[in-house]
Structures are given as C-alpha cells and as structure tokens.
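Lecture notes, continued. The same structure-token format from the folding unit now serves as the input rather than the output. Read the line below as a description of shape only.
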C-alpha cells in the first residue's frame, strides 16, 4: 500500500480537512499518516505521529517510516518552531525516495520578478522591495496612494494603505477585524514608524488599486486550481471574497465574507461579464504552466484576482497552500472532489513519478 503523509506544523491545524482526506484514503489504496516535521527522529528517521485506522475510522498514535508521498500543509510564522521545521522540510524535499505533491512557491517579490518576465506581466501590480523609507516617500509623491505588504506575508497580516494628503500622510490597516487609521503630520514622523516596521520584516510596495465595489468593500476573485488524477490542471471553482466597508483587505481572516461567483457575474453587463471571463481564462490556463516551468512542480494554487472599476484584472497573490473555504461555501457539492483530490493526485504521482521532477534540489527552500 502507498503511504501518504499529511504534514502540518501543529496537530490541530486544518483538522476537519485532514480527517476528511484520511477517511477516504483506504478506498484509494492509500495508507494515511499525519505528522509534524519536527517529530522525525534524525537518527532512526522514524516519525512519531499518527496513522489513520481504516477499520475504526480514527487516528492512532504510531511510529512509522517517513511516508513516500507527502502533502505539505505547513504554514510558517516567525516563531521558533517554524524556524526549526523549515530546514527539516527542505531536507525532506531533497530526498530521492520521497515525493511531495507540490513544492511551494517563493516569496511575493521573487514571484513578481518571475511572472513579470512572462505573458502575465500586464496583470501584475508593479512591486518593489522597500530598502529605504525614501522609496516609500518617492512612491507617495508619484502616485499618492500605495499599499505596502510583507514580502513573506500571508492572510492579510501587516498590510498597510498609505495616502499622501496636502500636508499629512494617512495610514490605514486592518487588525483583529477592525480598521485602524492614523495620520502622520509629516514625513519624519512617518519614517520613524515605517523604519521600525521594515526593520522587523522585509516589505514591498505597490500602487494602491481601486478594487472596491460600490459599497466601498474591497473584493477579489479567489480561484482554486488543482491537478486531477491524470496530472492535468483543472479549475475546481471560484468565488468572491468581500471585505469590510472602508477596509483594504478581502481576506477571510480579516473578517471578509463570501459570495457566489455566478451571482456576482450576473450583476455585470454582458460585455463586462464576457471580457472578465476571457481574461480569467487566459490567467488560469497560463499561470500554472508558467509557475511550473519557471519554478517548481505544484499540486494546487489559489489565485487572488482584483477587479478594478474599469474591469481590468490584477493578479494580487498566488498561494501554493490555498484554503478551501470560498469554494466549500459557494459550491458545497464540490466537497467530495476536494477531499479526494490530494489522494488521487498522490496516487497518480506514485505511478508516474519520474526522475525529471527531482532535478529541483537547489530550489527546495521555497515554502
Ligand atoms: N495593490 C493593491 N491595491 C489594493 N488592494 C490590494 C493590493 N494588494 C492587495 N490588496 C488587498 O489586500 C489583500 C491581501 O493582499 P495579498 O497580496 O493577497 O496578501 P496576503 O498574502 O496577505 O493574502 C488582497 O486580497 C486585496 O484585497
Ligand atoms: Mg492573498
């Protein structure tokens, strides 16, 4: 039987998703395990984790060899445990006898640099690293409104909107589902705050795009693409994420809500609907191909696409460990497909795995 390991940073993370996958594993001829990277014994190479018992339909604590297929669902933070796990995962990715469903993606800036050399360049908001506060000031003088975000960020954390007024600078962010605004009377006061921020973690800046609806809610299209049991990319579904009125983020973790894509699209004029649908098709057929050609093999991606008032589409973010909330809420009939997908793709990989996929060792630091 093939062994399939779901890897997370803590045992409670994504519990229901992981249980649903495990419950279907036996039917797919797969034995399912769940473990933390830090629970591998470096000497024996055995893992202390849990094995899913198909008969009892429950998890049982166990010690086992590292599973040969790995579904990596580790979300790293700045904490000690994350830092401990990153090199372990890199080591796992470099092993000849272990197959990862997907290898992850580089940070937002590297991703921008890669995609800006591709046919998708027109869909990318111009992004630059912030190495000095003056760059932020120059950008504000040029464009009046900008967004700054952590290069390694995720889930809307630490994102700020900055707007230059005649004398002052307005900074807005969302924290704990609340909108927080602050006015800096001059540049030097802004720089004091900004310097501390960028000292703590690397940031990039982008023009602020007007991506709100008529009710001033920021919104975006979230699309889930996965590989199917034949190793072919398919679009599983898409939905609209709506943020707080007057806010800047459409992330669900920032308090956003979800609406069905079709009902949103039906509120558009036919011309706009058709235009958006063609543009989305162009993005979803090209993006996974480009990412895999230029970076590393993947199993799934979640794409955040902003829609400007003039109908222009912007690729805001690509996630290699996407959530499933938007799709499960708007298309609950996809449940079964989504819970089976990692197993079916893992099974496909186990049968077809070739050496070519393993020629990526040097890039295994992406997560
Ligand atoms: N350049 C931008 N202009 C306007 N809104 C933006 C911009 N970039 C991001 N956003 C908003 O912030 C949200 C989070 O940004 P994103 O780049 O996806 O970061 P994260 O990795 O934290 O999800 C987006 O979904 C969108 O609502
Ligand atoms: Mg995002």
């Amino acid at each position: 039987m093939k062994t399939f390991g779901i890897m997370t940073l803590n045992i409670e993370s994504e519990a229901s998703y992981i249980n649903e996958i495990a419950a279907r594993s036996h039917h797919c001829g797969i034995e399912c395990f769940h473990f933390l990277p830090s629970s591998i014994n470096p000497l024996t190479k055995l893992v202390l984790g849990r094995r899913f018992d198909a008969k009892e339909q429950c998890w049982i604590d166990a010690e086992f060899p590292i599973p040969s297929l790995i579904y990596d669902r580790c979300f790293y933070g700045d904490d000690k445990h994350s830092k401990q796990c990153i090199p372990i995962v890199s080591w796992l990715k470099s092993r000849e006898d272990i197959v990862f469903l997907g290898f992850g993606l580089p940070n937002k800036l590297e991703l921008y640099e890669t995609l800006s050399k591709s046919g998708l360049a027109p869909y990318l908001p111009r992004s630059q690293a912030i190495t000095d506060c003056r760059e932020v000031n120059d950008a504000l003088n040029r464009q009046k409104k900008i967004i700054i975000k952590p290069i390694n960020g995720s889930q809307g954390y630490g994102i700020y909107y900055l707007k230059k007024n005649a004398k002052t600078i307005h900074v807005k962010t969302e924290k704990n589902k609340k909108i927080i605004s602050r006015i800096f009377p001059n540049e030097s006061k802004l720089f004091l705050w900004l310097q501390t921020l960028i000292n703590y973690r690397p940031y990039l800046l982008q023009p602020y795009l007007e991506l709100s609806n008529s009710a001033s809610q920021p919104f975006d299209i979230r699309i889930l693409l996965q590989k199917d049991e034949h190793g072919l990319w398919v679009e599983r579904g898409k939905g609209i994420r709506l943020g707080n009125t007057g806010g800047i983020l459409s992330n669900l973790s920032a308090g956003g809500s979800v609406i069905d894509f079709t009902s949103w699209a039906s509120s558009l004029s036919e011309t706009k609907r058709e235009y958006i649908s063609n543009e989305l098709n162009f993005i979803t057929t090209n993006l996974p191909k480009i990412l895999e050609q230029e970076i590393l093999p993947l199993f799934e991606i979640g794409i955040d696409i902003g829609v400007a008032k003039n109908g222009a589409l912007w690729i805001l973010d690509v996630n290699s460990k996407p959530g499933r909330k938007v799709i499960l809420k708007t298309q609950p009939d996809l449940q079964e497909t989504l819970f089976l997908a990692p197993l079916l793709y893992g099974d496909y990989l186990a049968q077809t795995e070739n050496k070519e996929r393993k020629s990526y060792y040097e890039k295994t630091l992406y997560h």
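Point for the exam: The pocket of magnesium ion (ligand 2) is lined by residues 251, 304, 317 (CB under 6 Å).
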